[in-house]
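Long-time lurker, first post. I've been practising inverse folding by hand and with some scripts of my own, and I keep getting stuck on stretches where the structure tokens seem ambiguous. Below is the full token string for one chain I'm working on. Before anyone asks, I'm not after the true native sequence, just a reasonable design that respects the backbone. If someone could post their per-position residues I'd love to compare against what I wrote down in my notebook.
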């Protein structure tokens, strides 16, 4: 296990090199984001994604989200970028909003039982963006054991995951320290399926018809 203090420029560069190498050989890395620390792997490496789920003690019934480093990357991943998706991306990316969309049928990945959908986000964190720019899309879930509190610092991630991750990129405490908001955009009307960093009022300023799940 290697840990790098990303507040030091030279150590950050070494850490990013180590993380890119680890992802390239199918390893797991812990990275900071604007919301929580994430445990990441190459999104197109089935064995690496399976290792990620195993490290968290998480089943395939909870597919792993994908982080991207640019708006353009999304074009190659999803079936169709609807006007609603475009508006939400324009307003909240990079940032704390995850969008559930239908992924392109041609993609050869296995993130769990997503039934043709993927949850995708572009984080607002310089270390995460630089890493994603070098690795391409990564499967990233919160850096914690399933059912335990999510990690908001590298120390918390190390305490829970230990040697399961090859590289830890320490970017200091997460600015938001709350999960991203998840909006399902696969239907005609976008639905909030998890409240988080982006509030419902802010979402409705962009798309007034965004609704919460039935029963809320």
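-- Answer (accepted) --
I ran through it position by position. Result:
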């Amino acid at each position: 296990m290697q840990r790098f203090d990303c507040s030091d420029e030279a150590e950050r560069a070494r850490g990013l090199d180590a993380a890119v190498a680890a992802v390239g050989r199918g390893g797991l890395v812990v990275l900071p984001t604007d919301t929580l620390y994430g445990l990441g792997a190459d999104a197109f490496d089935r064995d690496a994604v399976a290792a990620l789920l195993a490290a968290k003690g998480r089943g395939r019934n909870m597919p792993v989200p994908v982080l991207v480093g640019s708006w353009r990357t999304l074009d190659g991943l999803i079936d169709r970028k609807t006007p609603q998706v475009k508006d939400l991306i324009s307003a909240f990316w990079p940032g704390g909003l995850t969008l559930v969309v239908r992924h392109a049928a041609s993609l050869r990945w296995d993130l769990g039982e997503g039934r043709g959908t993927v949850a995708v986000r572009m984080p607002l964190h310089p270390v995460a963006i630089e890493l994603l720019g070098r690795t391409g899309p990564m499967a990233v879930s919160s850096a914690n054991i399933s059912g335990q509190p999510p990690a908001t610092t590298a120390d918390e991630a190390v305490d829970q995951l230990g040697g399961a991750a090859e590289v830890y990129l320490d970017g200091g405490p997460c600015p938001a320290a709350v999960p991203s908001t998840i909006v399902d955009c696969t239907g005609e009307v976008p639905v909030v399926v998890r409240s988080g960093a982006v509030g419902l009022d802010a979402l409705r300023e962009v798309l007034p018809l965004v609704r919460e799940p039935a029963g809320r």
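A couple of notes from the structure itself: The radius of gyration is 16 Å. Residues 2-206 form a domain with the DHBP synthase fold (CATH 3.90.870.10). Happy to go over any region you disagree with.
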